[in-house]
Amino acid sequence: MTADYARTQRRLYLKDTAQIQAFLAAPENIKILTAYETAVEEFQLKIIAQRKKYQEFDAVMNYLVDLLFARDPVLRQNKRLTRAMIFYMYWNCDIGLGSDDAAA
Prior knowledge:
By secondary structure, this protein is mainly α. It has one domain (3-91). It is 71% helix and 0% strand. The longest helix has 21 residues, at 30-50.
């Protein structure tokens, strides 16, 4: 991810990560957590399949967001929240390469 894109992502969405984490951890949101985990798995596979096509992870993030907006009108109406969730997935190392993946 480029430095400018990462800095902008952090400025826009880092403040939301604690709230997202608490929401997903709440026992009454187990179904939403399961849906989140399913989405993470799907995104990881899409990222692997598209990795060579994109030079920077900025483009991968935008690819995922565009994919979501194209297939779901509810997400299109909640663009900021959708982008915050994708950022959370990245920040939480649920998508993309983690430090233990870099050597692979």
